[in-house]
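During the second half of the funding period, the structural biology subgroup turned its attention to how the target accommodates small molecules. The most pressing case was manganese (II) ion, which had performed well in the primary screen but for which no bound structure existed. We therefore specified the complex as follows and requested a full 3D prediction, including the ligand pose.
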Amino acid sequence: MKTILIGAGSDLGVHIDGSHLGPTQLMNDLKDFYKGESISFIQDENIIKSRNLSDRRKNEYEIDKFNTKLYNTIVEKMKEDYFPILIGGDHTVAIPSALADAMVNESTGIIWIDAHTDFNTFETTITGNIHGLPLAAICGYKCDELRYYHKGNTIQPSKGVIVGARSIDEKEKDNLRYAGITYFSTEDIKKEGVEAIMEKAFEIAGGRTKSVHISYDLDVLDPKVAPGVSIPELDGINEEEAMKINEVILNHLDQVTSYDLVEFNPLRDKDRKTEQIAVNILAQTIRAVENYQKINKGLENPNGEAKLN
Ligand SMILES: [Mn+2]
């Protein structure tokens, strides 16, 4: 197995501009650190982006076009035994990323680290920003229009967990309840600690399966620490907690099969604070995945170099 970094530069899922620039910036920051394979997608410059508040389906067609390409590439790479690390982009890019995992692996679970639960539908969305719908689309809760390219199973909501939620719309709460997905709030993290919450998350998402998709939205952090996101929410987690969440994830690489880091918006960042955290999280992830792959390779041939002739 090999690692591949996939840049997914789209900000079509949100009326705020800038997250499409995130992947190029972060991949450039990592170029001395990471020498492996990478591939980049960036939205067509000629798209006239809808930011109209009354538009309930902002940029739906363009998002679908972008995501179809992304999906086909990730499915192909995962079938070739790559571990994809996807860098967003707004959170709509996680739809093809998570569904590609569900296509290649059986009964995939999902852990969604996010200040928002991203569980709106076209009926319940207040803003019409599609980056508020991806988890519902991934879990097969309505939103069929956002996954026509995917012929496989959707992820069962009973194998989905949201961690760090603190901004949920009223009708979105109903969606979460009808779907039966578990969510832990920022308060739960503060009360019980990162480790306890993340272990619970892995029990739910990873029980009786060997594949878990991770989707890490940087807006789970407090905007004082990480202001460079499109839709910041007050009272988030601190940097130490954010890194600790990632550490627990990386201790579960026997189950984790694909990974996203999304929503870095360089145009909203201050003193490159969010950029530095994003780079730290990615570097930690890349290193751990590469080490895990090395060890695993060794186990396939346990005699290895120690064998005497
Ligand atoms: Mn999100």
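Two results from this model are relevant to the next phase. The chain has one domain: 2-301. The longest helix spans residues 273-300.
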